[in-house]
Amino acid sequence: MSSGRLSYLSISKGWRSRLACPRCHASLELPDDMAESVQHLVCTSCHARYPASQGIINFGVNNTFYDHHGFTSTGRNFSNGPVGKLGLYLARSHFLYDIAQAVPPGSAVIEVGPGGGSRFLAERYDMLGIELSSASVRYAASTYGSAVQATVASLPLANGCADALISSFLLEHLGPEMIEQSVSEMARVLKPNGQMLHFFDVDTDASFVGWAKRQPWYDAIFIDSKGHHGMRFLNEWQRLFADAGFAVEVRRLSCKSWLQDLSVWGALDQPQVTGIARRIGHAAAVVRKWINPGADLAINALNDLVDPLLPDDWAAKAIVLLRKSG
Ligand SMILES: C[S@@+](CC[C@H](N)C(=O)[O-])C[C@H]1O[C@@H](n2cnc3c(N)ncnc32)[C@H](O)[C@@H]1O
Ligand SMILES: [Zn+2]
Questions:
Q1: 3-class SS letters over 151-185
Q2: Is 168 in the pocket of ligand 1 (CB under 6 A)?
Q3: What spacing in Å lies between the alpha carbon of 23 and ligand 2's midpoint?
Q4: How many angstroms is it from 154 CA to the middle of ligand 2?
Q5: Is the CB of 134 under 6 A from ligand 1?
Q6: Percent share of the chain, pLDDT over 70
Q7: Ligand 1: does its nearest atom lie under 6 Å from the Cβ of 118?
Q8: What is the pTM of this model?
Q9: Which of 8, 88, 131, 146 supports an S-S bond with 78, CB 3.0-4.6 Å?
């Protein structure tokens, strides 16, 4: 298929009718026939043109950092047996389990910054991926069926069109220049009483993170190379959500101790890290490579035992369930 021509847009029927111009929120001219070739979608009001290439619509974004640093993993599904249920409960520090508890099957759910998306969520919901990275958006489209290249700061969707919105490890990527606009966009596209669940890194001065922040390699390893320009303390997050009209319904705070998780320790397997930290980092990277997903699940279970004993403001990760006011 040549670039600029396509047979099918990577958008389900349900999400097609909810797309809107990210600049003025008016509807877009869409082909009646899903199989019709399309090169551009045009706004019916401001006439902005959005190119489509190989089924993916680009809503005016271009970001070379995430073109190279976007994620492409597509996660895994879980069987209905006891092992599958335990895996779902422990996976991603309970994030998938929390979503399944809060959001009814069949709901229209947006994932912002999905990377390659989640096969578990694809089975359960009518998912739409909003991804900045040109590589990741293609994986998200193949997992979810619906994905567009766009930024969470300017969503190409109509007001009040989604039942729920989720993200994992996206919020800490949203710098000061875009965070308020992004949270306000999330509120705009959710239905009244719509739910939001986010799993994200939180700043803290305690335990492992407090120590790591004092090391010369911290910014290079944990901020710049990952694009973590939106690290914020828990109380800053609470203010941002409240200002956009969200009430926090559930908060799950984790990784409060030096245990952290294997990906955090594995990140220390770098030449600029020396001594015992490097040795533990190397061991974590090796364990993660050879004994996963079991090793990650086991560390999550250990964190579950330790975290309830420690103060909330030591947490390095949070899951929050928020509800938009009606
Ligand atoms: C750390 S990855 C997390 C991927 C996946 N959610 C996961 O948990 O594995 C962050 C993703 O967010 C995407 N991203 C970063 N900024 C974004 C923005 N402003 N709008 C949409 N996606 C964004 C990146 O391209 C990347 O794929
Ligand atoms: Zn427009």
A1: CCCCCCECCCCEEEEEEECCHHHCCCCCHHHHHHH
A2: yes
A3: 5
A4: 12
A5: no
A6: 96
A7: no
A8: 0.95
A9: 88
